[in-house]
TrEMBL record:
This is Uncharacterized protein. InterPro entries: AB_hydrolase_fold, LACT/PDAT_acylTrfase. The lineage of its organism: Eukaryota, Viridiplantae, Streptophyta, Embryophyta, Tracheophyta. Pfam families: LCAT (PF02450).
Length: 244
């Protein structure tokens, strides 16, 4: 992977250090394997559940080692979904005792159209000379990516992926997964992921959401006669991308 993909958090950590936070004393990191996600109640999620337990322990230890002060949680992207699940899976008295503030950077609360592109045609993540189709199977194997599919509650019936014969909205994700040949993803999406999307509850702690501006964000994918193996025309909120 390229440095700009793997080291993007370093500047944030350095900035926090400049204003007085000390690594291992008042500043703690909680990295996770982003290939794994969580599942709705009643479904096993060994790696994701263990991460939540470890994160809970880290929060309690950080608070105890700093005079029982409540902590500030700072998440980025998918981390925001994990933090929200952690908060909502613990009782309100625990949240009130240990959480001072939750700051979510670019959290994909309602999923992204970008993930539909990843599942259908692969995503090179900006790495030069990489054919997206070569990494598509590996990307489909990451269970967390189903969690990032567009939420019906947010996207509604808006056309998200358009082919010559069929138009797919967020309500049609199971049919979309079938159409792109990812049949094994349909049942996990319906039983494990969709319930998580449908129960997006407020954590009842102070929360600040920070998002970017003037960022090209895919809103619709237009596929031609060549099907899903050819990258689509991407309509963004501010522009149209075409791949050749």
């Amino acid at each position: 992977m390229l440095p700009h993909i793997t080291a993007y958090m370093s500047s944030l950590v350095e900035s926090l250090g400049e204003i007085g936070y000390v690594d291992g004393k008042t500043l703690f990191g909680a990295p996770y394997d982003f290939r794994y996600g969580l599942a709705a109640a009643g479904h096993p999620s060994q790696v994701g559940s263990k991460f939540l337990q470890d994160l809970k322990s880290l929060i309690e230890e950080a608070s105890t080692s700093n005079g029982d002060k409540p902590v500030i949680l700072l998440s980025h992207s998918l981390g925001g979904l994990f933090v929200l699940q952690l908060l909502n899976r613990n009782p309100l008295p625990w949240r009130q005792k240990y959480i001072k503030h939750f700051i979510a950077l670019s959290a994909p609360w309602g999923g992204t159209v970008q993930e539909m592109l990843t599942f259908a045609s692969g995503n090179s993540l900006g790495v030069p000379l990489v054919d997206p189709l070569l990494v598509r199977a590996e990307q489909r194997s990451s269970e967390s990516k189903l969690w990032l599919m567009p939420s019906p509650k947010l996207f509604g019936h808006k056309p998200l992926a358009v082919t010559p014969n069929v138009t797919y909205s967020a309500y049609d994700i199971p049919q979309f997964l079938e159409a792109i040949g990812f049949h094994e993803g349909v049942q996990p999406y319906k039983s494990r992921i969709l319930p998580l999307m449908e129960h997006l509850l407020t954590p009842e702690v102070p929360i600040t959401c920070i998002i970017g501006s003037r960022v090209r964000t895919p809103e619709s994918l237009f596929y031609g006669e060549c099907g899903f193996d050819k990258l689509p025309e991407i309509v963004c909120d501010c522009a149209i991308w075409s791949f050749f």
